[in-house]
Amino acid sequence: MSHRWFVCLLVVCTGVSSALAEGPPLSLGRVVELARTQAPATVIARARTEEARAGLVGASRFATRNPVLEADVGPRWSDGRSTDAQASLSVPLDLGGRRDKRVSLVEAEIRREQHLARDAERLTIGIAVTTYYQALYADRRYALAEERVRLAESAEATARQRNRAGDVAEFEVNLARGEVARAKSGVAAAQSEQTRARGKLAVTLGLSSVSIVGELGDRSFLDIAVAKAGTRADLRAVAEEVQLAQSEATVARSGRWPSLDVRFTYEHERDTDIVLGGIAIAIPLVERGQGDEARARARANRAAAELATRTAWVGTEVSGARNTYASAITAARILETDAVPLSLENETAAAASYRAGKIDLGSLLLIRREALDTRREHLDRLLDAAFAAVDLWIARGTDPGP
Asked: Fewest CB within a 10 Å sphere: which of 59, 113, 223, 329?
């Protein structure tokens, strides 16, 4: 008895822990929120921004080299023996505003990484929303497969009843049984697709498992997002890369300035103490940062060309995505208003006719398959419309939040 209670308790605890791990069903708004805040891709992108920000620690130092302390000591032999000592301290100083230029360079890199992080967030939300609609589509296909099983079992029961009455031959019962088997196989395949879609969504959001709520044909959330004005974060990132390359060229040009070290020297010779002050100047006659400046200028030219190309291409991308979305909505609406209602009406009438003995099972299955194919095609069109809405939002680069 105690063993049975232990098993029951284990089952209950497992169910509770599974429910807690999965959490409440995710709506589209919640999917967007999770993709923005905790999806692995967005978290990594924000970490890169912080990594770039850490560069300010080194760039803000007054010099890039440490002071150098040198000391020498040793005996002197002449008329008498004595010990001489010498110590010098060299303190490097950066000329030509090098510190400010280094800080400007790091700040440009930070801004670029911030824009790249927002662009990664945009793309990650797009992937998450697309996967969310794929999961909704899989749910609808699973429900449709289960409905096919119920209809096939009803047809099998009718076939058996008519066979017992002598109205149909045994092969018609076998045909109905085969339809039931095919329908059950379809349920298993739809369940596999459903599991795969939910698993993909969970991986995208960084969760262990997910459940979802929503309607496949509901695109109001994205329609609101598309209507907003926005600027593509990837374009801003490329613009900042132009600025970053220019800052690199500025830092490289600072190599034309001499390097200056202020020196303080103390010497002790016999009974004499000597204190000296001086400077050491490294004259940039050979190496003046020419190579780094040339690479920075080439990078700036490349980034400027990329910015111009992408800016021109975005308009075409948005226009194409808008036209695609309009056509996808039209395709889904035609099936929804015309084809689906007629196919359902035909299927209902055919089922009644078969029960009344007016048509054979082959005719019923043919009409029913046409109705199911029409409904599956409607689901395909709804999914296409959802994908087109996501593509349009990604192309516009607007924030999908409320």
From this structure: 223
Closest to 205 (Cα-Cα) out of 22, 9, 401, 371: 22
Q: Which ranges of the chain have pLDDT less than 70?
A: 1-23, 78-80, 96, 229, 399-402
Q: What is the pLDDT of residues 218-250, one digit of tens each?
A: 888 888 877 776 778 888 999 988 988 888 888
Q: Please give the structure tokens belonging to residue 79.
A: 């008329």
Q: What letter represents residue 309's amino acid?
A: T
Looking at every residue in the chain, the average pLDDT score rounds to: 85
3-state secondary structure of 197: helix
| Axis-axis angle for helices 98-164, 340-355 (nearest 10) | 20
As beta bridge partners, residue 86 has 72, 267
CA dihedral defined by 339, 343, 345, 348, rounded to 10 degrees?
-170
Distance CA 190, CA 140 (A): 9
The reported pLDDT for the residue numbered 229 is: 67
